[in-house]
Amino acid sequence: MKKFFSALLCALLLLGIACAEGCLPEGAQLLAEEGDERRYRVEETGEELILSMQGESASGLRGEFAGAIDASWQEQSREGAEVALREEYPAARVLRAEETQLAGLSAWKLTFVCEEAAGWATLLGDRIREREVSFGAYFQEGRLTMTGARTVVLLYRPQAQLTEIELDEDDGLWIYEGEAILDGTEYEFEIHAETAQLLEWERD
């Protein structure tokens, strides 16, 4: 019996490591481990990554561009950036797209949510160059979970404090409704439970 539990523990540890590694982009090379963080580098994209762990599960991933500019990188359209994002985060729903600069070149910063990841990524030359992503269960059966809805509100309004949120059905449409405080002002909001779009943000 001891051997069984020992083997089970080893399998769970290996599974946790595999799941954590699965959160990383292709080509990520481990540089160092320190406490609950693992540092990686992706040579092809110039991205340096910090994978945050909670036990043996990945909880977040931060990436910063630390490479050299490649003359072959092409500026891309928003649509091209969204396609590139979905190569790494399939079925990502883009909540916001902003044109930005990265190393002096025009890039896209996309805020997104998908089934198991939420956050933002900066794309340049058809690749993610910077990111800040958290991992969790954000969608289930094509609809935002409560955790997903809370996360989405904070992606739209990062400084907001949620005071109330609930799922409501209106003529077959599932909506998260709630209240939040931002800069001392109370707001009411609505989030579409399937598309994660912010439908309403109004002063209470």
Write the layout of secondary structure elements.
Layout: H1 2-22, E1 29-34, E2 37-42, E3 47-54, E4 57-65, H2 78-88, E5 93-102, E6 105-113, E7 117-124, E8 127-135, E9 139-140, E10 143-144, H3 146-156, E11 161-170, E12 173-182, E13 185-192, E14 198-203
Antiparallel strand pairs: 1-2, 2-3, 3-4, 4-8, 5-6, 6-7, 7-8, 9-10, 11-12, 12-13, 13-14
Residue share in β-strands: over 45%
Q: How do the SSEs run, as a string of H and E?
A: HEEEEHEEEEEEHEEEE
Major sheet details: 8 strands, antiparallel
Which runs of at least 5 residues are low in confidence (pLDDT < 50)?
Answer: 1-19
Overall mean pLDDT: 87
Oligomer: single chain
The tally of beta strands, per DSSP, is: 14
Radius of gyration over C-alpha positions, nearest whole angstrom? 19 Å
Strands in their spatial order, largest beta sheet: 1-2-3-4-8-7-6-5
Total number of helical segments? Answer: 3
Please indicate the count of domains: 2
Distance between the termini: 61 Å
From the helix content, strand content and strand pairing, which structural class follows?
alpha+beta
Give the fraction of residues assigned to helices: 10-25%
From the spread of the alpha carbons, the general shape counts as: globular
